[in-house]
Amino acid sequence: MSVLPPVRKDRVIPQLPKFFNEGAALHTEDEFDTKVKTACQEQRTGTVGFKISKVIVVGDLAVGKTCLINRFCKDAFDKNYKATIGVDFEMERFEVLGVPFSLQLWDTAGQERFKCIASTYYRGAQAVIIVFDLTDVASLQHTRQWLEDAMKENDPTNVLLFLVGTKKDLSSPAQYSLIEEDAVKMAAEIKAEYWAVSSLSGENVREFFFRVASLTFESNVLAELEKSGSRRIGEVVKINSNSPNLYATNKKKQNCCH
Ligand SMILES: Nc1nc2c(ncn2[C@@H]2O[C@H](COP(=O)(O)OP(=O)(O)OP(=O)(O)O)[C@@H](O)[C@H]2O)c(=O)[nH]1
Ligand SMILES: [Mg+2]
Fold it and tell me: What b/e sequence results for 2-22 when a residue is b if at least 16 CB atoms lie within 10 Å of its CB, and e otherwise?
């Protein structure tokens, strides 16, 4: 029988980490949702503690996706560029509000010739991290296309989006505030949470991934509570469909499969 080692002390999240920019946050609450806190205290988090949530990291070539993941997962930084070929992944185990929670971080290739392989791994993501280089405005403009590609494989209503500017160490405060303005606008437009980080110095890297883990955990627990709520005996089961004719909807779905 294999027993997992305890979660590392520096992966324990006892409270909701703060957003980076109030104007571009997924939410601005100070604490986890009360329902989530109560469920964790009462150990009513269902299967969340056994689940592995998939997170994909996309963006132009050489913007710093691999370095971002390596800084967090291995506390390492390589100044030499080695293109990711296809995909790579890292597992990270956390403990959020006392509940174990795992993220599978998928590092994808930004180079056009590898994009086709990488995109086959986009499916089933619970969070999408779109990365751009704070010193390269074109990479920010391209984030819209990366989002579109990632969403072809995912259900937009179930995915948390993050927009991350890297290489903060390379831009002067004046340059930074210029691009930040555009990045915050973009984040608001695509409903993503904005962060600016440096994998070289490590600035904001841990804070960012803690926020990703926490918000993904929170949405998982809320979904689990909703599911168990609708299963309760005696309660009316709410069926989420816009169609007044459920039979027709089902039939349509069946036809799609053939
Ligand atoms: N100064 C500085 N350089 C960085 C930072 N992050 C990445 N780099 C450099 O940028 C280059 C590209 O980084 P990668 O992480 O390999 O880029 P990538 O987005 O994974 O590229 P692909 O795998 O081709 O898509 C490397 O030379 C890194 O050393 C940072 O925060 N600061
Ligand atoms: Mg890479």
Answer: eeeeebeeebebeebbebbee
